[in-house]
């Protein structure tokens, strides 16, 4: 008796995969097998976060400083100043993976991606809690 996974119609289309450890991987489905191991091309992982950082630093006659790879310029008089900056992360980070294989036993959900809707999203403004891993 032959079994099918229902993925035949999604080959060469962009899909979104949620793994059991809570990762969201998007890419073009290139192939799969009977164990639902899948091959994605042009893939990337979307890393969601709600984190922001509050940075305090006492400064003496400094005109620039790097905080989390962001260069801040400012001017201070001869007195001591306190710099307090609230830094928000860029929203959803997209980490390029390229050609990527995901084992079937690590897949939680596979879904079709609406390319038009996905292209209209501004990922720099999205904030969300990361998904928690599946607990058995």
From TrEMBL:
Record's keyword terms, sorted: mRNA processing, mRNA splicing, Nucleus, Ribonucleoprotein, RNA-binding, Spliceosome
SMART domains: Sm
Domain Sm: 2-116
GO cellular component: precatalytic spliceosome; U4/U6 x U5 tri-snRNP complex; U6 snRNP
InterPro entries documented for this protein: Lsm8, LSM_dom_sf, PTHR15588, Sm, Sm_dom_euk/arc
GO BP annotations, alphabetical order: mRNA splicing, via spliceosome
Record CDD domains: LSm8 (cd01727)
Subcellular location: Nucleus
Main location: nucleus
Keyword Lyase: no
Molecular functions per Gene Ontology: mRNA binding
PROSITE patterns given in the database record: SM (PS52002)
Role played: Plays role in pre-mRNA splicing as component of the U4/U6-U5 tri-snRNP complex that is involved in spliceosome assembly, and as component of the precatalytic spliceosome (spliceosome B complex). The heptameric LSM2-8 complex binds specifically to the 3'-terminal U-tract of U6 snRNA.
Family, per entry: Belongs to the snRNP Sm proteins family.
Record's subunit section: LSm subunits form a heteromer with a doughnut shape.
Protein name per Swiss-Prot or TrEMBL: U6 snRNA-associated Sm-like protein LSm8
Source organism (scientific name): Brassica oleracea
Gene: LSM8
């Amino acid at each position: 008796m032959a079994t099918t996974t229902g993925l035949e119609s999604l080959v060469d289309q962009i899909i979104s995969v949620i793994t059991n450890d809570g990762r969201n991987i998007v890419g073009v489905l290139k192939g799969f097998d009977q164990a639902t191991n899948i091959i994605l091309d042009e893939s990337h992982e979307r890393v969601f976060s709600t984190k922001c950082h509050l940075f305090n630093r006492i400064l003496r006659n400094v005109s620039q400083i790097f905080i989390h790879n962001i260069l801040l310029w400012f001017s201070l008089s001869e007195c001591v100043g306190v710099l307090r900056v609230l830094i928000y992360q860029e929203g959803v980070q997209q980490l390029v993976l390229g050609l990527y294989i995901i084992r079937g036993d690590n897949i939680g959900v596979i879904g079709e991606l609406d390319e038009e809707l996905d292209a209209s999203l501004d990922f720099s403004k999205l904030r969300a809690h990361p998904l928690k891993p599946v607990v058995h």
